[in-house]
């Protein structure tokens, strides 16, 4: 016989296991909050902007071809900025205790489509250090690119700075807690259905009918102790009344 699960049975399972679902969700939220606020190190971000554009004087005309050339060079510049040729110099100038590879993992370089502006972002445990790395990397790149590619079309558009009360970019405790809440509810619901699936005990006449595939002919009610005592007292009282009536007769 093929088993089908109705919406009523699903809701019944959720109602029966609601305490388990809520407990798992609360545990997930608590763990996420504690880890986010007390164990994860705050990471700050600082950004600077580099403009890729040849300097002009009043006698030189604006060239669309040169703009396209600068745009094509940006992808190459993005790679050069994160290369050891630049980062090793940055490490030496700032006396950083890390390798070029480790520093490269903290730096993100990118630009908008058809834009000559390159965004250089640095993430670090210290907001001040992140700003120093970003500004130093930009200045070293501007200085060294003329030697590497024999061009002079890079200028610093905006320097990185540290804002008062700057908030870290990660972790984001509120987001982590919301995700943990959703995951906790999903895990709790899944566990509730799993426990209900493996629970093969017979709890009602419907369970017996489904298990035996036979109709239920009768039900034996369960009488608790207090009801039993009331019935005994009532029966005793009735017997005494009957005896009294017999003796009187």
Largest sheet geometry: 4 strands, antiparallel
CATH superfamily of the largest domain: EIF_2_alpha
Query: Strand arrangement, largest sheet?
Result: 2-3-1-4
Rg over CA atoms: 38 Å
- Low-confidence segments, given as residue ranges, are none
Residue share in helices?
55-70%
Total count of helical runs of at least 4 residues: 9
The ordered H/E elements are HHEHHHEEHEHHH
What is the overall pLDDT average?
82
Overall number of strands: 4
Q: How would the global form be characterised? A: rod-shaped
In percent terms, what proportion of residues is strand? 5-15%
- Overall number of structural domains: 3
| CATH topology (fold) name of the largest domain | Alpha-Beta Plaits
User: Which CATH architecture of the largest domain would you pick?
Assistant: 2-Layer Sandwich
CATH class of the largest domain: Alpha Beta
Q: Report the span from N to C terminus.
A: 66 Å
Helix/strand class: alpha+beta
Domain Tyrosine-protein kinase G-rich: 140-194
Membrane topology: Multi-pass membrane protein
GO molecular function: protein tyrosine kinase activity
Family: Belongs to the CpsC/CapA family.
Provide tags for this entry.
249 residues, alpha+beta, Alpha-Beta Plaits, 4-stranded antiparallel beta sheet, LPS_length_determ_N
